[in-house]
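Hi again,

Forgot to attach this to my earlier email, sorry! This is the prediction with magnesium ion bound. I've pasted everything inline since the attachment limit keeps bouncing my files.
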Amino acid sequence: MGSTEIPGNGHELASVAQQRAERLAELPFEVSVSAGPKSVGGFFASIREIAKHRELLDLLIRRELKSRYKDSTLGFLWSLIKPLVQLLIYYVFIGTVLGASRGVPDFAIFVFSGLTLWGLYAETISTGTASIISNGGLIKKVYLPREIFPLASTGSAIFNFLVQMVVLLLAIIVLGQFPVSWNLLYVPVAFVVVLIWGVTFAVVLSALNVFLRDIQYLVEVAMLLLFWASPIVYSWTLVVQSVKTHTWLLDVYLLNPISLAMLAFQRGLWQAGSQTRVLGDPGNLTVVPPVQWPANMDLLLVLATIAGLVALFFAQRIFSRLQGNFAQEI
Amino acid sequence: MTVSDVTASGTANRGGAQLPVVVRAENVSKRFVIRKEKSLKERIVNFGRSQKHKDDFWALRDVNFEITAGTTLGLVGANGSGKSTLLKVLGGIIEPNDGFVERRGRLAALLELGAGFHPDLTGRENVYLNSSILGLSRKQTDEYFQSIVDFSEIEAFIDTQVKFYSSGMYVRLAFAIAVHVDPDILLVDEVLAVGDEPFQEKCMAKIKEFQQEGRTIILVSHSASQVEDLCDRVLVLSHGNVVFDGGATDGIAALRESFDR
Ligand SMILES: Nc1ncnc2c1ncn2[C@@H]1O[C@H](COP(=O)(O)OP(=O)(O)OP(=O)(O)O)[C@@H](O)[C@H]1O
Ligand SMILES: [Mg+2]
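Structure tokens for the complex follow:
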């Protein structure tokens, strides 16, 4: 009677509540991920979790790019100005004043390709290391797979890298030096190697940085030093010449996956390196033979990739152990 | 008036069927280490000493409870008794040292002063960021966007960076987002105290609507009247231990008692 009429609305609500209860009763219980398996399975569970948050990752990358240059007039042009000024400095001082360009044909292309790839690595690691701290506001308030933050830094580093790549390729085309050869395949390989190692360090250092803030500054100093440990502003030929007979030093040098990737990148984009060129003014000509690229470069690149993936696995495991305490330490 | 009606009918509806458990905490313990040095220098200077003398204490000790769907749970206790810590553990934001928390359904959390906003982004961008974190797609957010803005009543500032917001505006937006993402579980930590009176009333109305829709709410509050008004169950914490678990009126009495300890 009355009971069917008056609580009409109430019944609807009751059924809303009931439906919710029924739906919830069907759901499995979830424990937060970092409390889950601590082994190999945990790695893949984390990857799945991150994949579920793709859209968020995309948003965070945009946010990172946007907020970085938010209040500046020239905006993202700044991300281009810095490497171009660097190029100018190295071109003028190292190349011309110190004379490094005498043995290196198309020195500008050589240096800019090195700087571009190095920029990807350095930016991934330095912004990645700071990423957990700088996103403290979010980490203290909501749960989400925290690997997303170093990955978002990586994403914005990739974006800047691609912008520089466009400039580099345009310059190469304008200079008539576009390398139409199989060597071009080295470019994506070098990119992948740098990316894997960059992400590895970004992930592990971002977690350690929460507990020891000095890491951020140590990283900056280390990057300054490491810049000179790879053939960016000096050529591989120079390295080979200076080790003289101690060729084992070359193997040590190539243990650094970034040096190896740098060589591969140059081999792909810097056509002059693989050709015999004649340099200098008329009357004072020097013939520059092609660079003697390391003999087993392809194999070394494969090994560097595999080693990188293994390192990435351990980096994620360390991260996952440490992340449970992030929110309380920031 | 309507309050008691709602609660009464709410309980009646729930009384019949067996309700599923949505949150379960088992032996949850959380220890904090108070070690202040974060820099290398301090670590080296205090090396050895810091290991022996590092202060630690239990912010939560063996907390056990289950919450069934549709319950509104009040979490009360003195300052520093571990309420916010417990809420963070429930939200998965910090890991307990011991024990575990299981839960099911979508969770939205309003922890101590607002959601996770990025100060450099505008209100609009933060709405998208936050709803994405809570699991909404861009399209779903587009649909809800206008009603989030309407609820928060800060239309004029929605394209301003949130670092220029007042604390009330901040909470308005955070609350508006949290209630629009269709959560099954809502965690609220004292945030409502910052809103002005009309907004607090609006929030109360919303919370009551949520109760009728069978959502689970866990509320930390220092306002006894608010707790009595809203909660059908109260948990009193004292120095990290649960000292009372039961009805709201008795809970407030137990809370007053716990202050003396
Ligand atoms: N990140 C942290 N590191 C160290 N100690 C912490 C941390 N967070 C909280 N604590 C300590 O844990 C205890 C419980 O804190 P909590 O914030 O949970 O209290 P509360 O019950 O929410 O208090 P209030 O009513 O003041 O909000 C406090 O003694 C606090 O100092
Ligand atoms: Mg608190």
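Chain B touches chain A through 54 residues (CB under 8 Å). The domain at 111-183 of chain B is CATH 1.10.8 (Helicase, Ruva Protein; domain 3).

That should be everything now.

G.
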